[in-house]
């Protein structure tokens, strides 16, 4: 059943992404001031939202583990964090490429960029902590606590655009006040978000499947050593 | 009241142990002096440049020196399984944690109080007229470092690479508090007017301290006991 869901979601996200690439590169005109490079926003913003969503869902899985003690929830939290970190890396790289063209800099210590990088480092630390602990229950407990702490920092990142003066572009989506994109240009961004969320769900399900197999192999190995 | 009494028992034990051995404070202080020396090679410390980066230098020294104190906080309990005995004692996880926090905070503030005048002498910085405000910033910023550092010290105490893991985990987490403390310290050390635009950093420090103290007290039982 899970395999069928993985295949269905992969096909669906692949189709949406292919359709979107067609729209983004062949139908939408260049932006007046930025030229062709503005198209990177169609991957930068959805990847950022996907990573934030993942980090928060991972925190809830961690809280779920602390309440129920089910290791499956911890496996879900770990899988979601790994995939979200990959999307966070995509966000940093695409942002950096855009910054090189528009600002003339690969990187600037703008508060939002800095905060996002801080978040990225925290989740790298999360994975390092997980790798350093062998005992599954201790690993799950510590990871859940770290995830809760890290999510509080994400809130500061999310609010930082309002708190600090920043050279990062203002909000571009119409759901936030001051949204600056034309309606026809905004739609592919939302479709890309849906496609990336589906893609992340596929990757998370595959990762959870791998972890479940790993647990099975470990238990068989222990069983074999016992005799 | 009982909470504070138990916490104080843990804090007094740690402080008494440190006063007798002085190992952590001496190491932390020596490390702080080495960093202050190294900074002098990293840039040419003329008056204007130091004025602009004084807050950053000071808080980097505090953060680096603080890690040494925080690293030892729970690690010193590993000998003779003292940590297990401490957890099995009538004191709750929150009381042990709060006691450890108070001890670490006292030691870190003591190291900072020694470092500040040395920093002023080495880099020819005039201590500000509003030294009470600078002290308030030090107290608020240090509490943020202490509360997160102590919790993560408990989390990493049983890891082989704890000396490496603790700074890797806590520095990113401390960035908001460090930014606030650095901004305010730079303004105060430069004797610049503390305008309304800097009030947000005070608020950030207070909110950061409150949120993470509450969170740490809530979660420490899970970290220590399970």
Descriptive overview:
- The complex is a heterodimer of chains A (227) and B (226).
- Chain A has 227 residues and is mostly helical.
- Chain A is built from six helices and no strands.
- In chain A, helix 2 (41-68) runs antiparallel to helix 3, helix 2 (41-68) crosses helix 6 and helix 4 runs antiparallel to helix 5 (136-163).
- The two termini of chain A are 35 Å apart.
- The model of chain A has no long low-confidence stretch (mean pLDDT 84).
- Chain B is mostly helical and 226 residues long.
- Chain B has one domain.
- The radius of gyration of chain B is 18 Å and the shape is globular.
What is the structure about, briefly put?
With 227 residues, chain A is mainly α. Chain A has helices at 2-27, 41-68, 71-102, 111-132, 136-163, 183-226.
Keywords:
heterodimer; A: 227 residues; mainly alpha; 6 helices; globular; B: 226 residues
Gap between N and C termini of chain A = 35 Å
> Quick one: biggest sheet of chain A?
none
Kindly report the greatest chain-chain contact and the residue count on each side.
Answer: A-B, 26 and 24 residues
Q: Could you state the oligomeric state of the chains shown?
A: heterodimer
Beta fraction of the residues of chain A? under 5%
Shape label of chain A: globular
What is the SS-derived class of chain B? Answer: mainly alpha
Q: What's the helical proportion of residues of chain A?
A: over 70%
Total helical segments of chain A: 6
Give me the strand/helix succession of chain B.
HHHHHHHH
Kindly provide the radius of gyration of chain A, computed on alpha-carbon positions and rounded to a whole number of angstroms: 20 Å
User: Quick one: overall form of chain B?
Assistant: globular
The tally of beta strands of chain B, per DSSP, is 0
Report helical residue fraction of chain B: over 70%
**How would you sum up the major sheet of chain B?**
none
Percent of residues in β-strands of chain B: under 5%
The total domain count of chain B is 1
Q: Any idea what the radius of gyration of chain B is?
A: 18 Å
């Amino acid at each position: 059943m899970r395999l069928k869901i993985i295949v269905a979601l992969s096909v669906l996200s692949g189709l949406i992404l292919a359709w979107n690439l067609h729209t983004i590169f062949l139908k939408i005109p260049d932006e007046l001031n930025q030229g062709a490079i503005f198209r990177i926003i169609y991957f930068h913003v959805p990847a950022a939202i996907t990573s934030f969503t993942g980090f928060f869902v991972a925190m809830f899985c961690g809280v779920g583990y602390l309440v129920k003690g089910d290791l499956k929830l911890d496996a879900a939290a770990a899988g979601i964090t790994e995939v979200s970190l990959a999307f966070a890396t995509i966000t940093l790289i695409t942002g950096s490429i855009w910054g090189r063209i528009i600002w003339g800099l690969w990187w600037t210590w703008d508060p939002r960029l800095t905060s996002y990088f801080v978040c990225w480092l925290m989740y790298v630390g999360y994975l390092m902590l997980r790798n350093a602990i062998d005992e599954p229950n201790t690993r799950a407990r510590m990871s859940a606590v770290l995830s809760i702490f890290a999510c509080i920092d994400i809130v500061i990142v999310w609010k930082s655009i309002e708190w600090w003066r920043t050279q990062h572009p203002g909000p571009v989506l119409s759901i936030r006040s001051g949204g600056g994109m034309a309606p026809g240009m905004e739609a592919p961004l939302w479709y890309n978000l849906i496609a990336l969320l589906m893609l992340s769900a596929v990757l998370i399900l595959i990762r959870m499947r791998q972890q479940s197999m790993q647990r099975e192999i470990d238990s068989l190995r222990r069983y074999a050593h016992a005799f | 009241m009982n909470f504070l009494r138990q916490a104080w028992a843990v804090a007094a034990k740690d402080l008494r142990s440190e006063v007798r051995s002085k190992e952590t404070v001496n190491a932390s202080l020596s490390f702080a002096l080495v960093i202050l020396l190294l900074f002098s090679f990293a840039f040419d410390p003329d008056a204007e440049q130091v004025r602009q980066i004084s807050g950053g230098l000071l808080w980097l020294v505090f953060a680096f020196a603080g890690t040494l104190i925080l690293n030892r906080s729970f690690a010193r309990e590993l000998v003779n399984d003292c940590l297990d005995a401490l957890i099995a004692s009538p004191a709750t996880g929150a009381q042990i944690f709060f006691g450890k926090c108070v001890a670490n905070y006292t030691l870190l503030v003591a190291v900072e109080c020694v470092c500040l005048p040395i920093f002023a002498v080495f880099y020819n910085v005039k201590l500000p007229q509003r030294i009470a405000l600078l002290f308030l910033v030090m107290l608020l910023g240090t509490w943020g470092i202490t509360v997160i550092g102590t919790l993560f010290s408990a989390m990493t105490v049983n890891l082989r690479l704890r000396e490496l893991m603790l700074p890797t985990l806590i520095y990113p987490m401390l960035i908001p508090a460090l930014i606030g403390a650095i901004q305010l310290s730079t303004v105060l050390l430069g004797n610049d007017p503390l305008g309304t635009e800097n009030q947000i950093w005070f608020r950030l420090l207070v909110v950061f301290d409150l949120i993470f103290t509450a969170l740490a007290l809530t979660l420490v039982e899970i970290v220590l006991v399970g």
